[in-house]
Specification:
By secondary structure, the protein is α/β, with parallel strands linked by helices. It has eight helices and ten strands. Strands 4-2-5-10 form a four-stranded mixed sheet. The protein has a four-stranded mixed sheet with strand order 6-9-7-8.
Length: 280
């Protein structure tokens, strides 16, 4: 049994939030620069150039890449041979309070979603997805989810007969209907199978998969490539002003599902796909 202090988890998460908020991933930046090289529309190319410049400014000056610093979402895998000394979720939320306060990150969370909508003033509570896994380590993935793109996300409970073609139409239609609202170029996370909530969690997790990587199943990998091409042919383009770079990636994951259904979730993420991970 390995002992891990809750304070270690807190400190690691504070650093993850800073890293994700100020320094965009090299995979995303490289994809934007590929878009610059491919764009023939001068206005669209200019938007991408400004995005790349904003990445550099945020990294150098240690300021937020985007003013919507999002809800704090965590995917945490806890090794079953690790013992956490101290309250685990309290440590995660305390890290969010510290990072959003000391890092000058906008606090966007309201406590009651329907009536009062009073800001919690510290961006808590975080959204925490925890899994128990073999081993004695703790793996933490943080993603800051802004709601310009989150609001454009969709889920549909298809009958099995909808098949691949139904899934493709749904994904493409979701991006087309979103238009400029999710701040394209976007990363499109797709979850297929499982149940209603599992499909959505898969889609959210896929927005943090490295841009340029592919599903290990060649059928799904081919589907990712096909959908990326179809979405970029929509012509929405950077900032919705037209062009060939509507999406940087389409990332798909799947899980076994019931014989009577085929859930499909699409989670949209803007080009500020802020995430970082570490292992304790």
């Amino acid at each position: 049994m390995r002992e891990i202090q809750a304070s270690e988890i807190r400190d690691a998460i504070v650093n993850l939030i800073y890293e994700a908020s100020y320094a965009i991933g090299s995979d995303i930046e490289a994809a934007v620069r590929r878009g610059i090289a491919l764009e023939t529309n001068p206005a669209s190319r200019n938007v991408l150039e400004q995005i790349a410049e904003s990445y550099a400014i945020a990294r150098e000056e240690r300021i937020a890449i985007c003013q919507d610093t999002g809800m704090a979402v965590f995917f945490i895998e806890v090794g079953q041979e690790a013992h956490i000394n101290g309250p685990f979720e309290d440590a995660v939320n305390e890290a969010v309070r510290i990072a959003y306060r000391d890092g000058f990150l906008r606090k966007s969370v309201v406590d009651d979603p329907m009536f009062d909508r009073v800001n919690t003033k510290d961006n808590t509570p975080a959204v925490i997805h925890t899994r128990l896994v073999p081993g004695d380590k703790i793996h933490i993935l943080f993603t800051a989810k802004g709601f310009g793109s989150e609001n454009m996300s969709r889920i549909r409970m298809f009958p099995p007969a909808a098949g691949v073609e139904g899934m493709k139409r749904f994904v493409i239609e979701t991006v087309a209907e979103a238009g400029p609202n999710p701040c394209p170029p976007v990363i499109v996370g797709v979850g297929v199978g499982g149940t209603f909530e599992q499909a959505a969690m898969l889609a959210k997790r896929m927005t943090a998969r490295p841009v340029g990587s592919r599903n290990p199943d060649p059928r799904y990998a081919a589907l990712e490539e096909e959908l990326l091409g179809a979405i970029n042919r929509l012509g929405v383009g950077p900032a919705g002003i037209g062009g060939a770079t509507t999406a940087l990636a389409v990332n798909i994951d799947y899980r076994p599902t019931h014989i009577a259904g085929m859930p499909v979730a699409v989670n949209m993420c803007c080009h500020c796909a802020r995430h970082a991970e570490t292992t304790l």
